[in-house]
Design a protein that fits this description.
The protein has 191 residues and is mainly α. The protein is built from eleven helices and two strands.
């Protein structure tokens, strides 16, 4: 109960801050809020506006709503509290499905399958997730990405795939047990 009360209070405060933004800036953030990590290609694909990078840079310098986490090329990440508030607000609007589909299409077109599946799990869209995972081409991309993460020793990427593992069943697919094994192996943490 206390955890949810605190979350509600953070959401109230986040919405107060968001309400103080220019309307165009708030609408821009709503359009891109589903992205966990934002790079110029993804941002432009979603907004079709070259000025967006400048606006995000200014917002990252003048607010705590988002941070610029990379310089060349510029990359941004929304503060988790504000991202949650933006997504909650967006879910109550009629444009939610349109923005979700646009975001998913953009991510999949840029081979950002991990981010797309992560978003679907986060918002509880398991039917849409299963639809993506039944696409043989995307499944091959997922398997290749997981294998690449293993070869490169990228244990955090493997942890990110762990949320998708229960949906990856069947012959030839890397399962949850194998992912956990490689995560343990890479972090030298055997239990």
């Amino acid at each position: 109960e206390l955890r949810f009360k605190g979350k509600r209070q953070f959401a109230v405060e986040a919405n107060r801050v968001l309400a103080k933004l220019e309307n165009t800036h708030r609408l821009l953030l709503e359009k891109i809020c589903l992205l966990k990590n934002m790079n110029p290609e993804l941002i432009f694909s979603l907004t079709q506006d070259f000025d967006t990078l400048r606006i995000l840079t200014v917002l990252s310098q003048e607010t705590v709503i988002l941070s610029q986490i990379g310089m060349n090329p510029p990359q941004f990440k929304l503060n988790a509290i504000f991202r949650d508030a933006l997504i909650d607000n967006l879910r109550q609007q009629s444009v939610f499905n349109e923005i979700l589909e646009s975001t998913l299409e953009t991510l999949l077109n840029h081979n950002e399958v991990r981010q797309a599946t992560s978003i679907l799990i986060e918002i509880g869209e398991t039917a849409r997730l299963n639809e993506i995972l039944n696409n043989r081409d995307l499944l091959n991309v997922i398997n290749a990405s997981i294998q690449d993460s293993i070869v490169r020793g990228a244990s955090q990427e493997l942890k990110d795939w762990l949320a998708v593992a229960p949906y990856l069943s069947g012959e030839g697919r890397i399962g949850e047990i194998v992912l956990n094994f490689y995560i343990s192996l890479l972090s030298l943490n055997f239990k």
